[in-house]
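Forwarding the complex inputs:
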Amino acid sequence: MKWVGVFTLLFASLCCAQESGDFKPADTNVSGADFPRVDSASRAQFRVKAPDAAAVKLNFWSGPKLDMAKQPDGFWTVTTTPLAPGLHYYTLIIDGAEVSDPSSHAFYGGGRDASGIEIPEPGSTYYLAQDVPHGQVREVWYHSGVTGDWRHALVYTPPGYDVQTNVRYPVLYLQHGGGEDETGWTRQGHANFILDNLIASGSSKPMIVVMANGYARRARRPVPDLAGKPFGSPEAMKAMQEMAAAFEDDMTQVLIPYIDSNFRTIPDRDHRAMAGLSMGGMQTFQVTFDHLDLFSYIGGFSGAAGPLAFGNEKLDAKTAFNGALADPAAFAKRVHLLWIGVGTEEPAMMHAGLVRLHTSLVEANVQHVFYESPGTAHEWQTWRRDLKDFAPRLFHEGSAKP
Amino acid sequence: MKWVGVFTLLFASLCCAQESGDFKPADTNVSGADFPRVDSASRAQFRVKAPDAAAVKLNFWSGPKLDMAKQPDGFWTVTTTPLAPGLHYYTLIIDGAEVSDPSSHAFYGGGRDASGIEIPEPGSTYYLAQDVPHGQVREVWYHSGVTGDWRHALVYTPPGYDVQTNVRYPVLYLQHGGGEDETGWTRQGHANFILDNLIASGSSKPMIVVMANGYARRARRPVPDLAGKPFGSPEAMKAMQEMAAAFEDDMTQVLIPYIDSNFRTIPDRDHRAMAGLSMGGMQTFQVTFDHLDLFSYIGGFSGAAGPLAFGNEKLDAKTAFNGALADPAAFAKRVHLLWIGVGTEEPAMMHAGLVRLHTSLVEANVQHVFYESPGTAHEWQTWRRDLKDFAPRLFHEGSAKP
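Prediction (whole assembly, two chains):
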């Protein structure tokens, strides 16, 4: 790094160029970056320097690509129409190269450190840092005999955890989506602030939240050669099932015991929940229904039960989920909460699939909660709202605290 | 995010293309990325897809720009000569746009989420995750009356911290460099693994390490208008001094009391150290010498005492550092460790400045440690080595534990 450059950078946090009109730098920008910026109508302006490029596009992952226009100063710019609130992943396409915006912080999604822009939701503060007691988010490393390596997880401990050292807490296991990792729920989702605020208002019980890495491969298992094997091929499906099974074993045989040994948990099924978004929702349904001895609260955020939600399969309440739903009264007693959510603007197949799952559960008299997030897509604002609805419903039933 | 795309990404962690020869994907890559890759001679190969670009360069921040060559498949590639070990920041320049490499994880440096490539150091495991007990790295938020906002810090707690709840620990405050932030010491520096390994081998005492954000602006202070005011101008110098003073007040008046209230510290000067790299080293010298009532161990890693180290100013031991060195015997009693380090390959002015500071301290009979990291530049391998030498020297002197 050039020495003068280092000093120049110091000014970034001290000096901001003038904004014209109503536009303000997005909260997701790196320090001192004036673009992207957002106005009170939720329109966003993007700008990138690419003096020698022939074509630059803005690529919203949940929307169309927009052509950016070259300015005489070598910068390319574009202004969007009003955007839905929340965090939108995006990339820039510069002469065919799909890259991140140098002005945005990076958020791990789509298997890369992508860009994201935060569009404020007027009146919504539940996912922002407020003047309330804050919990901690802790990075932990645990060695897994299932995968044969050190695995990384994040653990939210509620405010006061270090002070009230005789108190034990229930635990929510909360999983990211495909292409994301264990950092997603705090960096993109602000799960820590959502819990801080819910706990401060008395809406949620204080709880520990564990965010694990959702990818796993068994130790000493050779890397499958999937070259030329498309998605949906028998070889690819087998590889996915092996990954899912390895994750399930790691979570139930290694991670849960690790958490129960290293944190002051209430280590029983009445005080253990699992939820996840998209791929994490499918993992949740697999792990919890295979282990109802371990979990009594279940949440699927835009993802639940694979083919039931996303394929054309119809729920057979007698056989589905290892037969757990066959006796709805017994199920309602055993599982304190079955929660399913989806955004109204998600891809039609996904929205229809989750609505169909909900309808089937109603028809089968299976007690559950169904939540639709209005106006949001397969994106983080849906999942923030999901968590806001889901968390207050946790840990009211079952055995008393030991 | 496209639904099929999500599934395709799942394979990234399952499936790796064949490598030719000796090259292996870098540890700093996102999951499943085959490039960049490194061979046993420490050469690195880079590859980026930019089918419509006219010119693509690889931009090492501590070295020259390299032209990449276009391949018939639309990818651009380049192979370097052998590189020094450690983490090197870099960007790609695609038709004049300086962007991050989509295949690399992002590391906050240079005021942006930049790319980094890790070149292994043969035989060095001290900064890697080993089969030893691991501490936790905790994100904390504290409200600062100095800056008027919520500030973010990372806190390393040593292995066993949650178990041995009657033990109190000394604290090292460890600062990042200019253009970086509080994530640098763990993500780029692996400070947590360095401490885990030093503590496991008995080389270092168990300690808490606090990594704060080094930028601060006082509450209700207007943003200085530095437009047209170059680095070194009176206005710019004043703005920098104000930032440094706000950081000093935040650290000494808010952060230290917060840490002492919320962690089991030994809250006295004999059990409090501060060190930092580059800008963080200058901050360390300012904060500690202004507050020798708070600190007794001082480390400057490639940065110390601004003009003394980097300008042409000569140390006047009678007046320097508020006169603290004027009586070397008294100083040696009061400050248990004064530690200065620099890499032999750092920019000539920087290396010469720190050598001159060392020589001046020798001439003035001021007890200190001077360390030169062989073959490394103003980069993280220098600072990892610094921490490895510095941490074992901490907390052996002064008052006994309470």
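The first helix of chain A runs from residue 3 to 10.
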